[in-house]
Amino acid sequence: MSMGMFGLMDTLFPIMFFTIFAIVIGAFIFTIVRGITTWHKNNNSPRLVVNAIVADKHEDVSVHHHNDNGMSHSTSSTSYYVTFTVEGGERLVFQVDRQEYGYLIVNDQGKLTFQGTRYLGFDRE
After folding, report:
1. Contact 93, 79 (CB under 8 A)
2. The domain 46-124: what is its CATH number?
3. What sections of the protein cross the membrane (predicted)?
């Protein structure tokens, strides 16, 4: 008995649909679990205050293109990162908000406060 093209699609479509659905749900769950794990790890890390120098600053701009009823538009988002050098030469990179990014200047010296991977502040000396 030959199923033909339509019979084959009737068989493959549910399998493909379920596979794609499972991948999307799996990625969503993975992202949530990773975020909760990082949050928990940061909360259980000691709050540290160390001498540091602002070594570098950089921005990561993401551009997103959208099509809506034939109209094309784009949006962008910017993430801000600051690299600090602490005593002993170790370099730590933290994501900061736009205001903090503008406030910090390369070669500033001061006290860096952080908890795990969470940036808490920098006080210039």
Report:
1. no
2. 2.40.50.660
3. 12-33
Q: Which residue has the tokens 């570098």?
A: 56
Exposed (0-12), middle (13-18) or buried (19+): which is 50, by Cβ within 10 Å?
middle
> Domain-by-domain residue ranges, the chain?
1-44, 46-124
- Weakest mean pLDDT among 24-33, 64-73, 94-103, 104-113: 64-73
Whole-number pLDDT of residue 2: 52
Mention every residue, 6+ apart, whose C-beta is less than 8 A from residue 87. Answer: 50, 51, 52
Summarised one tens digit per residue, pLDDT across range 40-64 is 999 999 999 999 999 999 999 999 8
Is the pLDDT score of 5 beyond 70? no
